[in-house]
Amino acid sequence: TLYDFTGRSYGNHGEFVGFSRDFSAQSGFVNRVNVVQGRIFNRFTRYGKPGALLENATTYVLIQPTWRYDDFLRLRSTLEGSITQQLQLNIRGGWFVTAVWSNSHQRFDPPEYARYQVDAGGTPVPFAVPHGLYNLWGGIAALSTPNRTLKMDLSLGRVSGPIFAEASEGRALNLFIALAFKPTSSLRFEGQWPHQVITRATDGSWFSTANIPRLKVEYQLTRDIFFRYVGQYFSQVRDTLRDPRTGDQLIVDSIPQGRSTNTEFRNDFLFSYKPTPGTVLFFGYGSSLSEPDPFSFRRLSRTGDGFFLKASYLFRM
What we know:
The protein is an all-beta fold. The chain has one helix spanning about 70-75; strands spanning about 5, 10-20, 35-45, 55-70, 80-90, 95-105, 115-120, 125, 130-145, 150-165, 170-185, 185-200, 205-210, 215-220, 225-240, 250, 255, 260-275, 280-290, 300-310. The protein contains 1 helix and 20 strands.
């Protein structure tokens, strides 16, 4: 950490975190090595008068550069980076309005594409890795309603970004909706549905569609007995991978990369019994299913099952 300040109307934070190529975490999890990541953050807040319609307005400015580890030590250019500004308005009654814009760049790392080839009329030829993408603009608008019996969160965004599988530029349309319904003090429903469609920036052709609806139901039958169900359906359909320069099909590890469909229907159930402090019984069951056609529910096949049991009892002397 380089610096950190937290005040009522202004705050900032600056840090650089680096992991060498040979770094191995002995505890915890590090998802990326051989990089140095910077984070420069500023916050500005303006407060409204008591009883005003606009209670406060806050803007965040975040700069996030990333270098290869050796490039950072040798003062070379970044591998990727972004600048993001977020404006959040807190409106009387518990309403929140958020707007975000960003600009980013991304260079492609040639070693990551060493296994790639291009099917040039039936003859595999080496894949020429593009240098990178620049001026990738994006914007998101979001609305949150007050936390009452029924609460809703909604966001819509249009973002340009890299399609790493093709080393090309894509444009994503992101839609997210979440609902929380609490009809009684003992029953709660929570549902959300992220939806994303990615098209190629070169010709506007479709690249992929993803949907991840999720439902959680919680019921407190008595003070001691609690039930929970969580269901989630993951679906992603992706087009044939193509060379961004020629449009020819890509080959990875000698396998042509055609159209693909991935689905997973996950269901988890939990029963909880806690009659006294120190006495606990948890029983859970989870299953994963898959099918060739998203949301058809006709040819579901089981891919995994799991049971969970935990019991404890406190002996009092």
